[in-house]
Design goal:
- The structure is a single chain.
- It is built from 2 helices and 5 strands, in the order βββαββα.
- Helices cover about 35% and strands about 30% of the residues.
- It has one domain.
């Protein structure tokens, strides 16, 4: 997963990690529409891969991640 939720009594913080690099974004909301909007505003890309949604900080990271999956991913899809 690329999103981690930390709950507190006041609000929730969503930690979004790029699965390809060390880039992180923190968003203080528990509403996924707002989270998706904020990530997209910062240039993040949401992609459905192998049955789960992953967030990538940029197109280069998405492409690198897909290249690493290589033929294993292409054989499954």
């Amino acid at each position: 997963m690329s999103r981690y939720i930390e709950y507190s009594t006041a609000e929730s913080t969503i930690y979004c990690d790029c699965p390809n690099c060390v880039n992180q974004t923190f968003i203080n909301s528990s509403f996924f529409d707002i989270i998706d909007y904020e990530l997209q505003k910062e240039g993040w890309i949401k992609q459905y891969i192998d049955g789960e949604w992953l967030d990538f900080c940029c197109e280069d990271c998405l492409n690198d991640f897909m290249d690493e999956l290589g033929s294993d991913y292409n054989d499954k899809n």
